[in-house]
Amino acid sequence: MELQQRVNAFVRLGHFLSQFTTSPKDEAIDQAFIDGFRHQLKLAQEHNGWFTKNNLDFALQSWIDALSEENLIKWTSNYSFDIQNPQTIAIIMAGNIPLVGFHDFLSVLICGHNVLVKQSSNDKHLLPYLAKYLELIEPGFKGKITFTEEKLDGFDAVIATGSNNTARYFEYYFKDNPSIIRKNRNSVAILTGNETEEQLSALSDDIFRYYGLGCRNVSKLYIPEDYNFDAFFNAVFKWKDIINESKYANNYDYNKAVYIMSEFDMLENGFLMIKEDQSFGSPIATVFYEKYSNIETLKRHLDSQKDNIQCIVADGYSNSEIPFGKTQEPQLWDYADNVDTVDFLLTL
Description:
The protein is α/β, with parallel strands linked by helices. Helix content is 39%, strand content 15%. It folds into two domains: 3-184, 3-Layer(aba) Sandwich (Aldehyde Dehydrogenase, Chain A, domain 1), CATH 3.40.605.10; 186-313, Aldehyde Dehydrogenase, Chain A, domain 2. It has helices spanning 3-17, 31-47, 53-66, 69-76, 102-111, 126-137, 164-173, 197-208, 230-236, 246-261, 295-304, 341-346, and strands at 88-92, 114-118, 145-147, 157-161, 179-182, 186-190, 218-224, 267-268, 273-276, 286-292, 309-313. The strands form two sheets. A six-stranded mixed beta sheet has the order 8-9-10-7-6-11. A five-stranded parallel beta sheet has the order 3-2-1-4-5, with helices on both faces. Helix 1 (3-17) packs across helix 6, helix 2 (31-47) packs antiparallel against helix 6 and helix 8 (197-208) packs across helix 9 (230-236). The protein is globular.
C-alpha cells in the first residue's frame, strides 16, 4: 500500500465512527457493521464499569476529530515514509480508558509495519472490530493485523504501556528488542489565583473526564501560598452528578474514610476531596495539591520531575503547557511521554 491508501483508510474509519454520534448517518456503510460495533460498545460498557456511555462517546468523538484527512496529512507530512522491509511491532496496551492504545496501533500501520496487539482485559472489545472494518475497506491491511492473548512471539520491536512495576518487567523481558516502554505518569495544573471561571470550569474536565483514570488527567494542583479554593469548588460543581455513579461513589467513600481515620487534613465538597500531598498520583475522587512561593523554583522542581509528568496545564507558564480543558483532546502529533512514536518506527 502507498501512504495515501493508508491515510484514506483511516479517514474512512473516522467516518465510520461518526455513525455512533450525532452526525448524519451514511447509508453507504453496511448497517450490519454499524449494528455489530454498537454491540461491541454495549459489551465494553458491561465488561468495564468505568466505560460509561458518556466516556465511550467522548473517546469516539476524540478519534472522529483526530482522523480527519486534514489532520492525518498534517501529521504524516512531517516524516519520510520509506519502509522497504515491514517489521512486526508488538503493542502491549493499557486498559484505563477506551481505545487508549489506538494511537500506537494507528502509528504502526500508518508507517507500513505489521502490528501484533496484546490488549488489556479491561478494553478488549472495540479495537478488534475496528481492525476488521479496516481490513474490509482496505484489503491491503489483511495479514498485517494480529491480536493475541498468548505470550508474545515473532516480533521485531515493542511498544509497551504499564505501571512502574510492569515496566521493570518489560525492560528486562524486551532488553534485546528496540522498544518504547511507558511507565506511570500523571498530569498537573499550575494555578495563580487569577484564573477565570471559564478556565477553572475547563480544568474540572481535565480532572473528572474518564473519572481521572488517564495519564492526561490532572491529579495534582500547584497553588500559591495564599490560594483560596472557593472559586475552584464553584467551578467544578458542574460535575456534581458524578457522585451518583456507583463505582466513583464507592471510591469516594472509601478514600474519605481512610483520610478521616488517618486524621489527614482535607477539603471536600461531597464529590471531590482536595488533599495537600507531594505525590503526583492521587486516588479516584481526590486531587492533591502543593503550594509554591516562587514560579522559578517551581519550574526547576517540575523539570526535575519531568519523567513523572505527562501534561502541565497552565496559562502563561511555558511553551509546552496545555490549555485548561484540553488534556483529553491530544492531536495526532502529541506523543505520550514526548517520545515520537512514528520516528521510532521509521528508524528501526
